[in-house]
Structure formats: C-alpha cells, structure tokens
Write a structure and sequence with these properties.
The chain is of the alpha+beta class. The chain contains two helices and eight strands; from the N terminus they run ββββββαββα. It has a single domain, classed as C2 domain (Immunoglobulin-like, Sandwich), CATH 2.60.40. The N and C termini lie far apart (about 65 Å).
Length: about 170
C-alpha cells in the first residue's frame, strides 16, 4: 500500500470572512478549487454574508503529498464575481492522520481576508474505502464533463442569438 498516493475527499464546511465585497446587502460566497488543471466549484451560499456554509464534497486524486491546490472564495453578484480571498494548500497538510478538520486563512491584497474550514479524509491506494472513493471520483468527473458540455452548448446558443440580433 502506497501511503503517498490515494484519494482525498475534501469537504468545504464553512467560512468566517472578514473581507466584505458588498457595500450594501450580504455577500453570496462560493469557492473554486484549481487542482491539476481542473476547476471545481462549490454551490453559492446566497446571502451567506461573512459566515457562509457550503457542505460541498470533492474527491481529489493524490499522486504526491507535495502537490497543492488553489482555493479561492468569491462573491457572486448579478453579472460578475468579486474576489474575497485565496490560499494555496499543500495536500500533505490534509493527509495527516488520514484526514483533518481545520481552518485555513485566505488572503486578499496581502492581508488576511478570513478563514475557510475544510474537512478531509485520505484513503491510500489499496486502502479499505479506496474503491468506494474511486467510484465517487468517477461520478464527479462525469458530472464535470457534462456541465462543461452544457456550458459549451449554452455559449454556442448565445453566440447564435447574438448573430441573429446583429443581422
């Protein structure tokens, strides 16, 4: 059993955000994770303000504990998203004792912008729950591919409408 390779289930629990992007009203925060050229996105906590709760769960395929991912917190506005903060996280910090539950500080403009609570479960390759987690990863990958295809189709339809309108 290789303890440096396996699957990491990452749960985005909640946030305590100090950088508020809204002048009036409450923020609607969500998280993106960029890992190995893949972008994962949490659900938006509408009007979650400075204390959002997510509960989204993602499975990451770990090839090396030295790998890292970028976690960004965004505020969804009507037409755009504003950056709340980001951090880089080494996978090794989430693999300790086969998983952790801890707060990670996010930064904005080189200043602390709050914290995000993450929960992880690491299953080494060949471990008892590895096959179950691999099925979750396959399901997640399939869902992401389907969402990307739907987004491409929607973009193509919008481009077609734009051509009709400008003709």
């Amino acid at each position: 059993m290789d303890l440096n390779k396996g699957l990491l289930t990452l749960t985005l629990v909640e946030g305590k955000l100090s950088h508020d992007t809204e002048v009036m009203g409450k923020m609607s925060p969500y998280i993106t994770i960029v890992y190995k050229k893949h972008k994962l996105k949490s659900k938006i906590h509408n009007y979650g303000g400075k204390t959002p709760k997510w509960g989204d769960e993602f499975v990451l395929d770990v090839e090396s504990p030295a790998d890292e991912f970028i976690l960004r917190v965004w505020d969804q506005d009507l037409t755009t998203s504003d950056a709340v903060g980001f951090t880089k996280i080494k996978l090794s910090s989430l693999m300790i004792n086969c998983g952790v539950e801890d707060w990670f500080t996010i930064m904005y403009d080189n200043k602390p912008a709050g914290e995000v609570k993450l929960k992880s479960v690491f299953e080494p390759e060949g471990g008892n729950a590895y096959d179950q987690m691999q099925a979750k990863l396959a399901e997640q990958t399939s869902r992401l591919q389907q969402e990307a295809e739907e987004a491409k189709q929607a973009a193509a339809a919008m481009a077609q409408q734009q051509q009709v309108l400008s003709a």
